[in-house]
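Quick review question:
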C-alpha cells in the first residue's frame, strides 16, 4: 500500500476527534448549569472519551504492525545487499581470470596445450558462470531496489501512524480535562452524582474500578472477599481479580503489589491506603474521592480522601 493511501485511511481518526472536541465543549450561555445539564455533558464527554480511547488503542496496534513490517523490510534489504556484494566479488574474480587467460592468442594456447579439451571446458565454464552471474547481478539489483522501496514505505507508514497517535493522544487529554472539569462541577453541586457517573479509561485499573463500583451498597463483612460482601482489602482483591490480576487479601501485601505513586498522580482504580499501619484501603475514584468497604455495620460507598490519615497510593495496572 502506498504511504499516501495509508495516511488517508488513518486520517479519519484525527478528523473525527477534532469534531468530538468541538461538540464536547461545555456551553457558556448558562454560567450556572443545572445538575441535569452537567450530568448530560459529563455522559457525552465520557462517551466521546471512550471513542477516542478505542481509536488510540487501534492506532497503537497499527503502529506495532507497521514497526514490525519496517523491521522485516529492513532485514530483507540488508540480505539482498549482502547477496549482491557476494556475487559482485565472484563476477569480478571470474572476469579477472578470463582476462588473464585471454592474454595469449587462443589458437596458440589451444595448440600448445597438453590438454586442449580441458582448456575448452575451462573457457566454456568461465563464460557460462560469467553470463549466469551477470544475469543474477541484475536480478539481485532489482530485488535490492524493491526491498529498499519496501523498507522506505514501511518506515514512512510507521512514522505516519506514530504522528496520528500523538495527535490523538493530545486530543484525548483535552477531552479528559473537560470531563474532569464538568465532573468536578457536578460533584460540587451534588456529591451523590459521582457514583452515578461512568468510569473513563480502558486500562485494567479503570476496568477493576467499574467492577468495584457495581458493589456500592453491599455490606461490609470482616474477612469477606465477595461477591456479595466485602472487607476493605477483599473488595480491591475481588475487583482486580475480575480483570485477571491477583492480589493478596491483606492491605500490607497489596501495598507492595505495584508502583508507589504520589497523591498528585492518582488515577481512577489506583489503590489508596490509610493509617501508619495501613489497616484500611480503597480504590481512587476521582475528584478527591475513593471507593471502600469501611467497617462493620457500613456498606461499600464513596468517601472523600480529605480529613483521613492518608498513607500513600499504589498503581497496580
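Suggested answer, residue by residue:
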Amino acid at each position: 500500500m502506498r504511504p499516501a493511501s495509508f495516511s488517508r485511511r488513518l486520517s479519519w481518526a484525527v478528523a473525527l476527534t477534532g469534531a468530538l472536541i468541538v461538540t464536547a465543549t461545555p456551553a457558556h450561555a448558562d454560567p450556572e448549569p443545572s445538575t441535569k445539564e452537567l450530568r448530560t455533558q459529563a455522559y457525552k464527554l465520557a462517551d466521546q472519551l471512550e471513542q477516542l480511547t478505542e481509536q488510540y488503542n487501534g492506532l497503537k496496534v497499527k503502529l506495532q504492525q507497521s514497526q514490525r513490517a519496517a523491521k522485516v523490510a529492513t532485514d530483507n534489504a540488508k540480505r539482498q545487499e549482502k547477496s549482491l556484494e557476494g556475487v559482485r566479488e565472484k563476477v569480478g574474480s571470474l572476469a579477472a581470470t578470463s582476462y588473464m587467460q585471454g592474454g595469449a592468442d587462443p589458437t596458440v594456447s589451444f595448440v600448445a596445450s597438453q590438454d586442449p579439451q580441458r582448456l575448452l571446458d575451462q573457457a566454456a565454464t568461465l563464460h557460462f558462470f560469467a553470463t549466469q552471474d551477470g544475469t543474477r547481478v541484475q536480478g539481485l539489483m532489482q530485488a535490492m531496489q524493491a526491498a529498499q522501496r519496501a523498507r522506505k514505505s514501511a518506515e514512512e507508514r510507521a512514522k505516519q501512524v506514530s504522528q496520528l497517535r500523538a495527535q490523538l493522544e493530545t486530543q484525548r487529554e483535552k477531552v479528559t480535562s473537560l470531563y474532569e472539569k464538568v465532573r468536578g462541577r457536578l460533584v460540587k453541586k451534588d456529591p451523590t452524582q459521582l457514583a452515578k457517573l461512568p468510569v473513563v479509561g480502558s486500562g485494567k485499573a479503570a476496568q477493576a474500578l467499574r467492577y468495584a463500583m457495581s458493589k456500592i451498597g453491599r455490606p461490609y463483612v470482616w474477612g469477606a472477599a465477595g461477591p456479595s460482601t466485602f472487607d476493605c482489602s477483599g473488595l480491591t482483591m475481588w475487583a482486580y481479580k475480575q480483570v485477571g490480576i491477583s492480589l493478596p487479601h491483606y492491605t500490607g501485601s497489596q501495598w507492595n503489589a505495584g508502583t508507589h505513586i504520589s497523591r498528585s498522580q492518582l488515577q481512577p482504580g489506583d489503590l489508596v491506603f490509610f493509617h501508619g499501619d495501613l489497616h484500611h484501603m480503597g480504590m481512587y475514584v476521582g475528584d478527591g474521592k475513593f471507593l471502600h468497604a469501611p467497617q462493620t455495620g457500613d456498606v461499600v460507598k464513596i468517601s472523600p480522601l480529605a480529613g483521613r490519615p492518608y498513607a500513600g497510593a499504589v498503581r497496580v495496572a
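Why it works: The longest helix spans residues 116-189. The chain has a mean pLDDT of 76.
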